[in-house]
Write a structure and sequence with these properties.
This protein is mainly beta. It has strands at about 5-10, 15-20, 30-35, 40-45, 50-55, 60-64. It is elongated, with a radius of gyration of 12 Å. About 15% of the residues are buried.
């Protein structure tokens, strides 16, 4: 089973906000998160609690 995260965006201004966890369900800090699709590329780095937010660089669309 492929473990792809697909972000479906239905608004013009995209804000991705979520958490990154390890297999032990511990937050992953300092991880680079990339969303790439036909409408651009956005990047973020997780904070000490595993949170990240991508606000720039990508438009509406589907991302993996």
């Amino acid at each position: 089973m492929k473990r792809n995260i697909i972000f479906l965006v239905m608004i013009f201004t995209l804000i991705l906000s979520t958490l990154a966890f390890s297999q032990q369900l511990s937050p992953i800090s300092g991880a680079k998160v990339v969303a790439r699709g036909n409408n651009g590329l956005g990047e973020a780095t997780t904070d000490e609690n595993g949170y990240f937010r991508i606000e720039e660089g990508i438009g509406a669309g589907t991302y993996t």
